[in-house]
């Protein structure tokens, strides 16, 4: 049996006090001096571990509290109360919500699956990925326990082109080309975030994290410097149209490169392949209304990896601005299935992958793997405040984070995400993530339910409008 994939997580406290959801207020006046004070029974020992943060001149309890309200309900004199933190309310935007940001901070700090003391408080359904409900019907089967290892669940995926059939000559020798294929132990690669300060330090952290996780980090080729060169086996240099020089010595060292799509990209790939047959080549293209046509054409022309990129809010570009990445991924996946090309090519999707559950949902929609960007910055304590884009100071000096500390926080985040993926796979009764690809039978889509079940149930019978207007 293959050795179990293990992500080495280790607690890394933040450099800046995270912005807590609420403030704990505890008063001493009127205290009855109970034999067992509620502050001693906090399940997260928030009162015991609280300190004073000199950099922000604040009490750290707000970031330790998990909002279970046990202390608030338990104090007989109601001396412990909680109040909303106005700074927290300003975090993020409607897509990258404050909850996503603070949960990402927790995961990067601890490497653990996040807990919410008061349970899930969000809506039952929402737009985009929130309209997909995953089938967890096997959750009660203790044998499918991915994290604790009673039954091995694989999160390994392959990057590259696979032959749809094998052919042999009379001597039993294979008569077809063997394509390069690389396995990565989790269906996630890292890619450069579109914002943030200290990009060269962030790139170094991405490269080091990719090596630790045994995956890849996509870095624009023009930024590959001497500090990144030692990590080249875990980097995917990315080239804009016309920027690839096939004499670049980098191409002999790298295992994969990524080219932005352009009309002559397949000719460029043929040229590259004739010199570097072992080099994996990914083609990145924006998720537009023509995405399915283009992906079919590229897969038919022999593409190995197609990378479909949406914007930071998981929306398509140009004529597909109103479409979500989940729908665009399904379109491409189904088109490749129809064209009998789906198993030949690897499909990676990116843009707006913000939570561990988005990884599973993108794969259910038909991706083989995802590329993540902004969560890497958030793991490094970024607040998505956009000050850097406006030329203002970064509130967390992101560019100055030490590479080892930053790497461990990114590794922690991916450790927590991988454990959540294992939980989802275990709860679905699946033993490997490859089986999840395109498995829409393992999920319910709210749009479909609304159309097929709720609409007929709640539709008014024909003629009822007339009856409404004219009860006589
Ligand atoms: S609300 Fe819960 S987690 Fe927060 S301090 Fe009180 S007991 Fe601890
Ligand atoms: S915290 Fe704000 S200023 Fe700093 S990198 Fe993040 S978005 Fe940019």
UniProtKB/TrEMBL annotation:
Presence of keyword Nucleus: no
Every 4Fe-4S ferredoxin-type domain range: 21-52, 57-85
GO MF annotations, alphabetized: glutamate synthase (NADPH) activity; iron-sulfur cluster binding; metal ion binding
Enzyme Commission code: 1.4.1.13
Keyword Iron-sulfur found: yes
Database matches in SUPFAM superfamilies: 4Fe-4S ferredoxins, FMN-linked oxidoreductases
Pfam families with a match to the protein in the record: Glu_synthase (PF01645)
A Gene Ontology biological process term: glutamate biosynthetic process
InterPro entries: 4Fe4S_Fe-S-bd (IPR017896), 4Fe4S_Fe_S_CS (IPR017900), Aldolase_TIM (IPR013785), Glu_synthdom (IPR002932)
Catalytic activity of the protein: 2 L-glutamate + NADP(+) = L-glutamine + 2-oxoglutarate + NADPH + H(+)
Swiss-Prot/TrEMBL keywords: Iron, Iron-sulfur, Metal-binding
Spans traversing the lipid bilayer: none
Family note: Belongs to the glutamate synthase family.
Protein name as it appears in the record: glutamate synthase (NADPH)
Gene source species: Desulfobacca acetoxidans (strain ATCC 700848 / DSM 11109 / ASRB2)
């Amino acid at each position: 049996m293959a050795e179990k994939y293990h992500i080495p997580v280790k607690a890394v406290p933040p450099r800046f006090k995270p912005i807590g959801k609420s403030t704990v207020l505890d008063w001493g006046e009127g205290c009855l001096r109970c034999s067992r004070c509620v502050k001693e029974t906090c399940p997260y020992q928030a009162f015991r571990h609280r300190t004073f943060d000199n950099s922000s001149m604040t009490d750290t309890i707000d970031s330790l509290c998990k909002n279970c309200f046990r202390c608030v309900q338990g104090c007989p004199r109601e001396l412990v109360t909680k109040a909303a933190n106005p700074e927290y309310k300003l975090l993020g935007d409607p897509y990258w919500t404050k909850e996503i940001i603070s949960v990402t901070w927790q995961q990067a700090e601890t490497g653990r699956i996040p807990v919410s003391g008061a349970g899930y408080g969000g809506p039952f359904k929402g737009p985009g990925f929130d309209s997909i409900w995953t089938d967890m019907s096997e959750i009660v089967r203790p044998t499918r326990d991915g994290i604790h290892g009673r039954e091995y669940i694989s999160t390994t995926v392959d990057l590259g082109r696979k032959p749809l059939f094998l052919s042999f000559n009379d001597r039993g020798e294979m008569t077809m080309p063997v394509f390069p294929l690389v396995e990565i132990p989790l269906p996630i690669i890292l890619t450069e975030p579109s914002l943030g300060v200290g990009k060269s330090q962030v790139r170094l952290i991405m490269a080091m994290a990719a090596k630790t996780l045994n995956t890849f980090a996509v870095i624009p080729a023009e930024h590959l410097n001497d500090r990144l060169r030692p990590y080249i086996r875990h980097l995917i240099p990315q080239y804009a149209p016309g920027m690839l020089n096939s004499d670049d010595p980098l191409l002999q060292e790298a295992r994969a490169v990524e080219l932005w799509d352009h009309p002559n990209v397949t000719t460029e790939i043929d040229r590259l392949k004739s010199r570097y047959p072992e080099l994996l080549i990914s083609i990145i293209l924006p998720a537009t209304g023509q995405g399915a046509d283009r992906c079919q054409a590229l897969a038919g022309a022999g593409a190995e990896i197609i990378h479909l990129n949406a914007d930071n809010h998981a929306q398509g570009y140009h004529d597909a601005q109103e479409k979500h990445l989940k729908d665009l991924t399904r379109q491409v996946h189904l088109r490749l299935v129809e064209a009998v090309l789906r198993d030949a090519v690897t499909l990676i999707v990116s843009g707006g992958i913000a939570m561990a559950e988005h990884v599973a949902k993108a794969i259910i929609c038909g991706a083989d793997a995802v590329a993540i960007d902004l969560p890497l910055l958030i793991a490094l304590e970024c607040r998505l405040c956009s000050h850097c884009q406006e030329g203002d100071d970064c509130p967390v000096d992101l560019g100055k984070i030490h590479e080892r500390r930053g790497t461990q926080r990114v590794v922690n985040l991916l450790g927590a995400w991988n454990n959540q993926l294992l939980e989802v796979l275990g709860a679905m009764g699946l033993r490997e993530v490859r089986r999840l690809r395109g498995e829409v039978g393992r999920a319910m889509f709210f749009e479909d339910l609304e159309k097929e079940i709720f609409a007929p149930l709640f539709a008014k019978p024909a003629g009822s409008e007339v009856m409404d207007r004219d009860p006589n």
